[in-house]
C-alpha cells in the first residue's frame, strides 16, 4: 500500500511516497519557490532524479506537477495516482482543537486555517496545500492530518500555563503548546522497543536537536513537559532562534532599535541563536569548524547549547522523579558527538555515563552510547517523522 506524505510550507511542498509493505521510501522530493517562480527536485529510491524549473503560482500547480512527476517521464514510480491509497499531511499547529491524527474534511481545513493566528508562518500554508491537494486528488483518496502539537496535549495545566492574566489564556489561547511532537513520539516508541521495555514503564528525556530544537519529558509514553512553548521560538538556543529570553529584554531591545512586533519576531527567529551569538553561522558543523580555528564566539555558542540541554535534562529528571533514558535525535543529536559528549559529561551524579570512544563513532544510527554501569541509558535514535505520519494515516484509514 502506497501513502504519500506531504509537508507543506508557505512556498514549498516536500513529499515522500512510502510503500507501507516494508516501510520503504520509493520517491521523495520538494516543490519549491511556490508563488515566486517554481522548481521541482525529485529522487527515486533507485537513483533516478528530476530537477526542473516550473511555474508554481500556487500550491495547486505544485501538486499537479507532483502527480505528473510520480506518474510520467523518466523518474516516474507509479502508473496511475489510483495506486496511492492515502495522503498524510504534517500540520504544525493543532492547538487545543486537535489532540490526534484526524481525517481531512472541509471543516477540518477551515479549522486549521483559523488557527493561523497561532502559527502565522505555517497553518495558512497548510490550509492552502490541503485545499489544493483535495482539488488534484480524487475525492475517494482519504487524507489525514498529523499535528506537531498533538503529542503534547497531555502536558498538564501547571506546565503549559504562563504567569500572565488568565483571561488572555481564555481569550487568545496563549499557553505552551510544544512542537516536534511527531518526532518525540516516534523516537520514544523506537527507544522503548530497542530497550525491550514497555513505554508505559519508562521515563525519558527526548532531545530533538536540529535547526530547530526541543526537549521533552516523556513519562509512561506521554509528554508531560517540553521546552518549546506558544511558538517554536522557546526553549534552548537554536540555529537562528534565540530560545528562552527574559521578556523584558525583548521590550527593552524593541525600544532601543525602534522595532515593530514583526521586526522583533524576525530578530528573535531569524537573526539570533547560533548565528546571532557566533556571528559565524546557524549551522552546527560550521560552528565546530570555527571552533577548531580558534573562534571564541563559536566556542561560546557551543558551550551555551550544551549547558542549556544539560539544564533541561536535569529539570525534567526532577519533575519525573527519575530518569531511565536520554534520547539524542535530529541532525545535531544524531550526528554531533561533540554536543552529546558535552551534554553528558559530569552527569554521573544523576546516573549518566557515556562511552566517549563509542560515542565518537555513532552517526545517524540507533545505538546505545551509555556505559553498562550508567543508571540512565543514553541512546542515539534517528527520527523519522514522515514514517510516523504514514503509519498514523494508515492506522486511521484502516479503522
Ligand atoms: P536538522 O534540522 O534536523 O536537519 O539538523 C540540522 C543541523 O544538524 C545543522 O545545524 C547541522 O549542522 C547539524 N548536522 C547535520 N549533520 C551533522 C554532522 N555530521 N555533524 C554535526 N552536525 C551536523
Short key terms for the protein model shown above:
14 strands, Nucleotidyltransferase, domain 5, binds adenosine monophosphate, alpha/beta, 399 residues, 2 domains, 39% helix
Gyration radius, rounded? 21 Å
How many domains would you count in the coordinates?
A: 2
CATH class category label of the largest domain: Alpha Beta
Biggest sheet: strands, sense, closure?
A: 8 strands, mixed
CATH architecture of the largest domain: 2-Layer Sandwich
N to C succession of SSEs: EEEEEHEEHHEHHHEEEHHHHHEHHHEEH
Average pLDDT reading: 96
Q: Regions with pLDDT < 50 over 5+ consecutive residues?
A: none
Helix coverage percent: 25-40%
CATH H-tier superfamily of the largest domain = ATPase, nucleotide binding domain
Strand order in the largest sheet:
5-4-3-2-1-6-8-7
Ligand species: adenosine monophosphate
Could you walk me through the main structural features you see in this protein, from its secondary elements to its overall organization?
This protein is an alpha/beta fold and 399 residues long. It has 2 domains: 2-147, 2-Layer Sandwich (Nucleotidyltransferase, domain 5), CATH 3.30.420; 198-380, Nucleotidyltransferase, domain 5 (2-Layer Sandwich), CATH 3.30.420.40. It is built from 15 helices and 14 strands. It has helices at 59-71, 106-114, 123-136, 157-160, 166-172, 181-195, 247-257, 261-270, 273-278, 284-292, 296-320, 330-335, 337-344, 356-361, 385-398; strands at 2-8, 13-19, 24-32, 39-44, 49-53, 84-91, 102-103, 143-147, 203-209, 213-219, 222-226, 325-329, 367-368, 377-380. The strands form 2 sheets. It has an 8-stranded mixed β-sheet with strand order 5-4-3-2-1-6-8-7, sandwiched between helices. Strands 11-10-9-12-14-13 form a 6-stranded mixed β-sheet, with helices on both faces. Strand 13 and strand 14 (377-380) form a beta hairpin. The relative contact order is 0.11. Residues 210-211, 239, 283-285, 330-332, 335-336 line the site of adenosine monophosphate.
Amino acid at each position: 500500500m502506497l501513502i504519500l506524505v506531504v509537508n507543506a510550507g508557505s512556498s514549498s511542498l516536500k513529499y515522500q511516497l512510502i510503500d507501507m509493505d516494508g516501510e520503504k521510501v520509493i520517491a521523495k522530493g520538494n516543490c519549491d519557490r511556490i508563488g515566486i517562480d517554481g522548481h521541482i527536485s525529485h529522487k527515486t529510491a533507485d537513483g533516478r532524479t528530476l530537477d526542473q524549473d516550473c511555474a508554481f503560482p500556487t500550491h495547486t500547480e505544485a501538486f499537479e506537477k507532483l502527480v505528473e512527476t510520480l506518474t510520467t517521464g523518466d523518474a516516474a514510480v507509479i502508473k496511475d495516482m489510483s495506486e496511492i491509497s492515502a495522503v498524510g499531511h504534517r500540520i504544525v499547529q493543532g492547538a487545543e482543537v486537535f489532540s490526534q491524527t484526524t481525517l481531512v474534511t472541509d471543516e477540518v481545513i477551515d479549522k486549521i486555517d483559523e488557527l493561523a493566528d497561532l502559527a502565522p508562518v505555517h497553518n495558512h500554508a497548510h490550509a492552502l496545500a490541503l485545499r489544493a491537494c483535495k482539488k488534484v486528488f480524487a475525492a475517494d483518496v482519504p487524507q489525514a492530518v498529523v499535528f506537531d502539537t498533538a503529542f503534547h496535549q497531555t502536558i498538564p495545566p501547571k506546565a503549559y500555563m504562563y504567569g500572565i492574566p488568565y483571561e488572555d489564556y481564555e481569550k487568545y489561547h496563549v499557553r505552551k503548546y510544544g512542537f516536534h511532537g511527531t518526532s518525540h513520539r516516534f523516537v520514544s516508541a523506537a527507544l522503548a522497543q530497542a530497550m525491550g521495555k514497555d513505554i508505559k514503564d519508562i521515563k525519558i528525556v527526548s532531545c530533538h536537536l536540529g535547526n530547530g530544537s526541543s526537549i521533552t519529558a516523556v513519562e509512561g509514553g506521554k509528554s508531560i513537559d517540553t521546552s518549546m512553548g506558544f511558538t517554536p521560538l522557546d526553549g534552548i538556543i537554536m540555529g537562528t532562534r534565540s530560545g528562552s529570553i527574559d521578556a523584558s529584554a525583548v521590550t527593552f531591545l524593541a525600544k532601543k532599535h525602534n522595532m515593530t512586533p514583526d521586526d522583533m519576531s524576525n530578530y528573535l527567529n531569524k537573526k539570533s541563536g547560533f548565528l546571532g551569538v557566533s556571528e559565524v553561522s546557524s549551522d552546527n558543523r560550521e560552528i565546530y569548524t570555527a571552533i577548531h580555528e580558534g573562534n571564541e564566539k563559536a566556542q561560546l555558542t557551543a558551550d551555551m547549547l550544551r549547558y542549556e540541554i544539560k539544564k533541561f535534562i536535569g529539570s525534567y529528571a526532577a519533575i519525573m522523579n527519575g530518569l531511565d533514558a536520554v534520547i539524542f535525535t535530529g541532525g545535531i543529536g544524531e550526528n554531533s558527538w561533540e554536543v552529546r559528549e558535552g551534554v553528558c559529561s559530569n552527569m554521573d551524579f544523576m546516573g549518566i555515563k557515556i562511552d566517549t570512544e563509542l560515542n565518537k563513532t555513532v552517526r545517524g544510527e540507533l545505538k546505545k552510547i551509555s556505559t553498562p554501569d550508567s543508571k540512565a541509558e543514553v541512546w542515539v535514535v534517528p527520527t523519522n517523522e514522515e514514517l510516523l505520519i504514514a503509519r498514523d494515516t494508515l492506522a486511521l484509514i484502516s479503522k
